[in-house]
Every structure is written in C-alpha cells, then in structure tokens.
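Project standup — Tuesday

K.O.: blocked on the structure for the chain from last sprint. Re-posting the sequence here as requested.
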Amino acid sequence: MVERVTVIGAGTMGLGIAQVTAIHGIETILCDLSEDLLSSACSSIAASVEKGIEKGKTAPEARENVQQFLTTSVTTVEACAESNFIIEAVPENLELKSRIFQEVEEVCDSAAILATNTSSLPISELASNLKNPQRFIGMHFFNPVPVMALVEVVRGNVTSQQTVDSVVNLARQLGKEPIVVRDSPGFATSRLGLVIGLEAIRMLEAGVASAEEIDKAMELGYRHPMGPLRLTDLVGLDVRLAIADYLHAEIGEQFRAPDLLREYVNKGRLGKKSGRGFYDWK
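H.V.: unblocked you, prediction finished:
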C-alpha cells in the first residue's frame, strides 16, 4: 500500500494526479518551481473537487481529504526524500525528465518507485542513466485525471515485475483501470489516438467538414466520448505536435503532422490552455 506520493510538476496533469491521490487518502506532496504555480494549482484542485461534489461524482469527504493529505513544496529534494512513490509530470522533454530523475534518485529511498507520466517518450532511455532502472516505469494518466479511468502502465526493458505490480496496484487504489504495455514509440494509446487526431486535422484542412461535424461523426458514429479535434484542444496542440514529430521520426509517414497543426501552434493556438485551438474556449 502506497503511503506517500510526491508529484513533480503542478501543470494540468500534475495537479490532476495530486488531486486523485489526496482524495484517496494518500499523503501527497505537489512540487514545482514557484509558490505562485503551486497556489494556482491548489486553487484549481479545490475548484475541481467542489465541481465534482456538486455533480454528485465526487464524495463529499474528498474536500476534507484534499485539505488533510495535500501539501506543496518548491524543493524537489525535500519533497522526494520521504516518499515511497514519485510521479513526474513535467513537460515532454527527455533531457528535463532525465535530469529530474537523476536528482531524485540521489535522495529518495532505495525502495521508492520512480514513475513518469510521459505519453510517448521512451521509458528505457529515461531509465538508462539511473543506478537502479528496475524501479523505473511509465505511469501514463489521461486528462482530465479525476475523470478518466485509464492508466497506461509502461514497462521498460529492465523494469522489474515487482515495480509493475506496485504501479498496477496503485492505479486500482486510485479507482483507475490499468493496462500494461511494452515500451515502444507512442505506447498503445498515444499511437492509436494520434492517428485518428491527425487524420481529423487533415480532413479539416481539406475542407471535408467543420471541426464540429468531424467530432460529431466520431461521437455519434463510433461512440467516442469526445471528438478528436476537441480532444486535441484539451491535450494541447503543441503536445500533439511534439508527439507527432517524434513518432514520425520513429515509425513513419502516417504520423507526419499536418501543416494546419504546425501553423496553429506557431500562431499560439494551443487549445483550451491558450483560449483557442480548433475551438474558441474564451
């Protein structure tokens, strides 16, 4: 049973993960570089919990659990020293993630599990500079974390079975449904989801239909809970572009990013977080 979790990164994914672990009674430390970022993250968590309670999707005791079990820190070393589970959720940058885990490994308990929330970066490469890569694993949550049931557990080349079992158990402890996949470009979910998303953008670019009609086709015709263009806005167009460029280089032409996606990112149309992507979120 996991007793204490440190979540590194207070962005959309990090704060969502911290919300879920705290709600389930796990002592949680949310860590980022500034008090302002952490204050904003805590406000977002509080608002999300209240919204869930109002809709009847979150138990009323979640409010008290967040207040009791969630704390913050601007010092990564201190935040990780006493935790037995560290989840990193910083931007998708291989060098940044690798540097963080090398720093964390020096101070955390030898039995602590190190997990990355990456949606596409190679787990085995991230683990290659660690002294104990057997305890390193991918733990890919989905946005919005409090709502989405799936956790993709990504086993690296040397990840131990004990580490896999511990992560699967934590996912279930958080009320999630885990799947275990092998470390390969895009894993399972990013690879499948991106193909659909990129083709939807190409259809929009070619004038086949509007964003709303393309999304409605997948929602009503294939029972997707959200259309691929609205989902891309939620994930972030810049995030989708970075994954597309990586998979294009690693796998092939089916992942070449449409010109429209690159154009929108260059213009700062990144989706919901910037106020505009394929939809106007303002």
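K.O.: great, moving the ticket to review. The beta strands are 4-8, 27-31, 70-73, 85-88, 113-116, 136-140, 150-155, 177-182. The chain has two domains: 4-182, 189-273.
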